[in-house]
Amino acid sequence: MRNALIICWLAVFYATNVVAESAVLTYEQRPAVQNTILAERLETLLPELMRETGIDLWVVIAREYNDDPVFLTLVPKPRFTARRTTMLVFHDQGTEKGVERLTISRYPLGSLYDAAWEGGDLDAQWRQLGDIIKQKKPTSIAINTSDTWPVADGLSHSLHQRFLSVLDADLHPRIVSSENLVVRWLETRIEPEVAVWQRAVAIARHTIAEAFSERVITPGATTLGDVAWFIRGRFEEQGLKPWFHPDVNRQWEGQDPNDSASLGLSNSPDTIIQRGDLLHTDVGLCYLGLCTDTQEMGYVLKLDEKKPPYGLQFAMTVGNQWQDALTAEFQVGRTGNTILATAQKSLAESGIENAIYTHPLGVFGHAPGPTIGMWDNQNATPGQGDWKLHPNTGYAIEGNVTVGIPEWGGQKVKMKLEQSAYFDGKAVHYLAGRQTGLHEVKH
Fold first, then answer.
1. What is the pLDDT of residue 265?
2. Low-confidence ranges of the chain (pLDDT < 50)
């Protein structure tokens, strides 16, 4: 019922907003949506994941301004950091009673958590944590430490030492890493999240389309930096947080791809965009707790052109073929390394020169989950590449194809593409469509 209500509410909001392409909720409206989603995740998803990963007690400890990366995904909004030392305890009491959610903190966390202690004595707070864990008699005590996943390694050294000091020695052998639970929690999406995520991706794509048009670019006057700051400004005008500064760069006829010094100089922020330039941008924003990652291509028409050269248009088609070949290999249970290897084999048989560097996407732009290639490593990635693909997860379908352009004397260009997508367990769905034709900067 909660899913239906929130999706209906969002649909009504966007349908009645006069600027639907760029409409976002106000700051005042956002906490209600995020907290409704969080309540459902805690109530339905967390118990499922704790049982899947074999954890019956999970402890998350964060300090003010030194937050554990997973902390803010577990607490209601509006909240920007932990208050003093904040402790969360999740105890699975079985399928009938569900997961008990406790906070041992100076300040309460609202109705989503039961307060097991509130006070100002830090020593008493730590003792209470130790006593509660002892009372629960857990078979496993999961804490956020990990060699593989930075997002699951949030328990600082000093907090770890203090935790060990208040925990009965006979319970120490039951301590395990929470890394599997943290990754599954961060990578898994529920239905209402997909609805709001689609809006974020649509905003990103709409902004790129505007940026790569004559409304923003005047050939011979506008710089690459001007376009990047236009995109950044559009996001911030709407109260949207970029997770990296937009990158805008160019390729052009006669370019020497082996002359790295000239290439870098010609792609500085001060570089003036010229007619005949093939443009590329990479942008990412976060909205309602979910991030996007998008790369698209544009072309600046010459005075005597009504459309981009056919070779460039064909290169975009090859890029779409690359996307299809890659996403066809997404199967539940496959590792990122396996998906990479099978896609590379398929693409080699098709004669498509490419590079794959696709990554999970969600709460973070570079999120935990199966790494599928890296831009500087087209071989298997140990650790993160060994993670298996799960349903209800998100990805930035990222990479490039290299194609010769007949109109440019056979010169090769890279069509660099990235679209935010959702894997439902059977198929990959682009959250707001994908680019199939070059953006055009007209006369």
1. 61
2. 1-2, 4-21
7-30 pLDDT, tens digit per residue, is: 444 443 443 333 344 578 999 999
How crowded is residue 335: how many other Cβ atoms within 10 Å of its Cβ?
19
Residue whose entry in the numeric block shows the structure tokens 């099978």: 342
Closest of 381, 396, 177 to residue 296, by C-alpha: 396
Cα–Cα distance between 343 and 319 in angstroms, integer?
14
Give the CA distances from residue 152 to residues 71, 275, 398, in Å, rounded to whole numbers and listed in that order.
10, 48, 24
In angstroms, the CA 295 to CA 416 distance is: 7
All structural domains of the chain, each given as residue ranges with its CATH number in brackets, are 2-9+19-185 (3.40.350.10), 189-441 (3.90.230.10)
The predicted pLDDT at position 15 comes to: 38
Residues 6+ apart with CB under 8 A from 71: 60, 62, 82, 86, 88, 154
CA angle 33-37-39, nearest 5°? 115
Nearest CA to 424 out of 327, 357, 321 is that of: 327
What gap in Å lies between CA 259 and CA 400, rounded to an integer? 20
Task: State pLDDT tens for residues 243-254.
Answer: 999 999 999 999
Q: Alpha carbon of 213 to those of 87, 217, 240, 251: distances in Å?
A: 50, 6, 22, 17
DSSP state of 155: S
Query: Whole-model pTM?
Result: 0.92
